[in-house]
Task: structure prediction
Amino acid sequence: MVEQIFQFVSNHYILVSSFVFLLVAFVINEGKQGGAAITPTNLVNLVNREGAVLLDIRDPKEYSAGHIAGALSMPVSSIDARIGELESEKGKPVVLVCKMGQQASATGRKLKALGFENVRRLSGGMPEWTAGSLPVVK
Result:
């Protein structure tokens, strides 16, 4: 089986190369549409220098178990109903914080469609934040 795969790759290297290129381009494009990923260290700098808005999109239980100081709790399920609360923040960077960094992409696309231009997402979500021994409010 493995020999057949290697044989296919060597016989169709242009096709395989094109597939790999398109796959990488797709992954990069999908990541950017939901907002650029930002590390916890860069997040601290962004909040301190530009007054970034932290939007915690996890459910209320997870939020109350521990969140970043100053983060606004707005679960994914209530984004549409509560988007008006963010209208005054359109000019500021908005950083999305979720459980593992996955849900933020879809929410980021939604915010960009609503006119928020500077949307970012915390790379790795809250586990990445806590792994860096950064403060959490309970």
Observations:
- The beta strands are 36-38, 53-56, 72-73, 94-97, 119-122.
